[in-house]
Design a protein that fits this description.
Number of helices: 10
Shape: elongated
Strand content: 5-15%
Number of strands: 10
Number of domains: 3
């Protein structure tokens, strides 16, 4: 029996979902119709390709522990041509920190808790217990392989596996984009001021910021409705300034909104109010 298939069956028996890799670390499809990604699937895709197969047939989604599937006709020729075995780390509750060069390894040794390590052709895999979203190039020479990706099987490694540290999880947390200058003007005003004190306007802006940052869903809609409410209450008298608008845009961008969307939502709100 093929050496790679033997390795795959041994891993599958231990509950590790596996699949064959072609040369170049590319996954093999598990059906003849999708061989060589003929159906349009991408080699490292996060979802199955646009094919009509009855089951996922690409990359991490094809990884399985079923010995019948592994030895069946769909993958028979794939194992004959296989260059390696891959596995789905997230499928067994693991995260692989893929370190591609010596500087990346040095960073890991300075920063991360010791865990099980596996040597690679260019660096090391550091394997932790726990899953997280996967991401490439989180730092120079550092990739995160966990859910919805595959990793090459290079052996069991050495050392005691430890829990996934927050330091690794933090690598994929996107920092809010800095607030960029905006060109959408604040309404010029000229209407009667209904604000009894400056504190009245300040409370309104603070409540609007809180409404946006507290949104857990429908962020686009929340931003627009909040902009609309602020402009309806404070936009006609001239008390609303660019500083107030910047605060609202900052709150929106902290929730992932782009500067362009903020500007569009503000412009749409002023148009809706006839300003």
């Amino acid at each position: 029996m093929n050496q790679h298939l033997n390795t795959a069956l041994d891993l599958a028996a231990r509950g590790v979902p596996v699949l064959p890799l072609r040369a170049g670390k590319l996954p093999a499809g598990n059906c003849h119709a999708c061989r060589d990604n003929a159906c349009g699937g991408r080699p490292n895709m996060k979802t199955p390709g646009p094919c009509t197969c009855p089951r996922p047939c690409h990359a991490w989604a094809a990884a399985t522990t079923d010995p019948v599937a592994l030895t069946g006709p769909a993958w028979a020729s794939s194992w004959k041509q296989a260059a390696a075995v891959a596995y789905h780390p997230g499928g067994i509750g693991l995260t692989v920190v893929d370190l591609d060069h010596a500087d990346a390894i040095a960073w890991a040794r300075r920063t991360l808790p010791a865990t099980r390590t596996v040597p690679t052709a260019r660096g090391e895999h550091w394997i932790y217990q726990g899953t997280m979203p996967s991401a490439n190039d989180v730092l120079d020479g550092v990739d995160i392989k966990s859910t919805m990706v595959y990793a090459r099987w290079l052996g069991p490694g050495t050392g005691t596996m430890t829990a996934l540290p927050d330091t690794v999880r933090a690598l994929i947390v996107k920092k809010p984009s800095p607030v960029r200058p905006v060109t959408v003007p604040v309404p010029a005003g000229g209407g009667e001021c209904r604000h009894r004190t400056p504190a009245y306007l300040e409370r309104g802006i603070a409540m609007a910021e809180q409404r946006i940052t507290g949104a857990r869903s429908a962020v686009h809609h929340t931003v627009y409705r909040t902009f609309l409410a602020v402009l309806a209450a404070h936009g006609r008298c001239g008390c609303l300034t660019n500083d107030h608008m910047t605060r609202l845009f900052t709150a929106a961008q902290s929730k992932g909104e782009s500067p362009r969307h903020c500007a569009d939502a503000w412009a749409n709100a002023t148009t809706a109010l006839g300003m």
